[in-house]
Known about the structure:
By secondary structure, the protein is of the alpha+beta class. The protein is built from 5 helices and 8 strands. Pfam families: AHSA1.
Amino acid sequence: MPVTNVSHDLDARTLTIVADFACPPKRLWEVYADPRQLERVWGPPTHPATFVDHDLSPGGRMNYYMTSPEGEKYYGYWEVDSVDEPNGFTFDDGFALDEAFTKNPDLPVGKNVFSFTERDGGTRATFVSTYPTAEALQTVLDMGVVEGASSAINQIDDLVAA
């Protein structure tokens, strides 16, 4: 499994996931740059994602929903801050209320830094999410973000190996 470490720090309001992949950073970058590839790995296997909009550029927005086994849809968005192809990007990840991708003011927004660095012929990916308060971080932890994100990230191995 690619995920090698998961930690959270309530005082720093961060969740950090580290994963190692047997591919160069450029190949991992391609997963996030292509909405059809990203759909195969964003969200846990039981809740596949569909990206409706995908603009991985500074100021861009990515709108998506995940579908539960029962067919219920959960909406979310990314607002891209910066892009350093193929080394990573930063973005705000939030929950949306509906298919219009209206921001949900009742759920936290995470500021994310995804970085991809060459390591031993492969790539070390570090995913850091920072929340506005310790309570906001605890909310997403209680929602199962560690299990969901880890199972989603672990799907990347099969995709990049193909």
